[in-house]
User: What shape does this take?
Amino acid sequence: MSSLSIIIPCYNEEAVIMESYRRTKAVADRLDIPATIIYVNDGSTDRTRELLNGIAEADKRVCLIHFSRNFGHQPAVTAGIHHCSSDLAIIMDADLQDPPELIPDILALRDREQANAVYCVRRSREGDHAFKRATAKAFYRVMNAMSEVQFPLDAGDFRLIDRKVMNEFGRLKEHGKYIRGLVSWVGFKQVPFYYKHEARAAGTTKYPLSKMIRFATLALVYFSNKPLRLAMGLGFTAVVVGIVLAVWFSLGKIYGFSHAESGWTSTITIITFFGGVQLLTVGVLGHYIGVLFDEVKARPEYIIDELVSAGEKPKREGCPG
Assistant: This one.
């Protein structure tokens, strides 16, 4: 019989963690396969850790991974996968925007299609303002246009993966992981599951605009070298424009159809254009160099302060499946 782990990263979710556990546990109780809940506490500074410890003491199916500090959502999901010993894993957030009640339907689709992964596609995004919905749609489409790997549109980290996918994921050594992209990259049979993305049950979003931009930049840099080619194209365009303008002003001065000596506006425009192209190119190169620098340092993606399962003593091995 297969076993299931439900991986739930959380950061400062004291307002919703008990309701999240109650609903997830109710679903796990109804499943026909043994299920474990793995909470990854991403260095929360509120009462999340205290509440999770109380949950683990009362429920022998709950495993806790406490980070030494906040490392981010993607390292938290990575830790959950690394410490999962089940045959199947479902990744979902603690804020209940991904309803745990959908888990039986996701498992049924996986069994019916004999798929290795089921990625959940948002039909709608309740609770998100128009700007976030528009930028999210644009992000997935830009990623597909820029990347060598095609990603499912409008699909987040809410998904099911099997042991085959988890084993291949464990072999990936890069530190700046874009997990939904990597799961697509490993291949195997993957099928969509369409659902309604709910509003947060409580608390505030942990992905403000600044984090969304950093996340999008990280995903793009790790999955495509097209920005480098784009920077080279801009540089080439700037050279062509510069040559054309030089010829134009030279001929204009000779034949009198331009007044290059009084062209303050054109001079400032040219300087601004070339300066912008140079800064953009240097910025793109610098970002790629920064990624290489982070990889060369080979620091761990996360540091575990404590791993607790069912009120047992802290340990380092995987959570039971």
